[in-house]
Design brief:
- The structure is a single chain.
- It is built from 7 helices and no strands.
- With 199 residues, the chain is an all-alpha fold.
- The protein folds into 2 domains: 65 residues, no CATH class; 89 residues, no CATH class.
């Protein structure tokens, strides 16, 4: 019981007094003070009482400091922030929780969600963020395939290599002719930007 005198503080005083009373009853009942079961029970009681409390405070502290989405992984961000919200015992559909979620999103993703979806609840924000990030990943993959495809086409000779020698010759390639006939803006894959879009 002597070790209990070292555990002090407003949050633990009540627990220490309760454990002291329990130990005193056990000893009065004839249990040997060196019985290992006594100490196992005290350890289990401490864990039950304070592990949840410490986890809650730690989660609240992390959320106050701010959780940010790392890289492009929206799923990992949602798993992390929802676990912290549960541990902190916060409600999901309150302005503070929604704001915490929004603050962790990359600026571009936040702007797209706000601009295109106008969500109001936590679930709406979550689903919109997932959808917009999936759109971004899809577009990025397509652009990458397109850009690497141009190089491949040049290397394999799919795009004609001959250069028109007569500067006055008319270009009658099917794609260019169709573009001029329909009056649409001509799209030339070789001039499309391959830099990448930031959500």
């Amino acid at each position: 019981m002597f070790f209990l005198t070292y555990i002090k503080g407003i949050r633990v005083n009540e627990w220490v007094m309760a454990v002291n009373r329990w130990l005193a009853r056990q000893l009065q009942g004839g249990i040997n003070p060196t019985d290992e079961q006594l100490w196992n029970e005290v350890t289990a009681s401490f864990t039950r009482r304070f592990t949840d409390s410490l986890a809650k405070e730690n989660a609240q502290s992390i959320l106050r400091a701010g959780v940010k989405m790392k890289g492009e992984n929206i799923d990992a961000y949602i798993v992390e922030i929802e676990e912290l919200i549960r541990l902190a015992e916060y409600q999901f559909d309150v302005p503070q929780t929604i704001e915490t979620f929004m603050d962790g999103l990359p600026t571009g993703l936040y702007q797209k969600v706000l601009e295109l979806d106008r969500p109001t609840t936590y679930e709406q924000w979550k689903q919109a963020a997932i959808n917009r990030q999936q759109d971004y990943i899809h577009m990025k993959a397509r652009l990458k395939a397109h850009c690497s495809g141009i190089t491949t086409l040049h290397q394999r000779g799919w795009i004609p290599r001959q250069i028109m020698t007569d500067p006055n010759a008319m270009d009658t390639l099917a794609g260019r002719t169709r573009g001029r006939i329909t009056g649409s803006e001509e799209i030339n894959p070789t001039t499309m930007p391959c830099g990448g879009y930031v959500p």
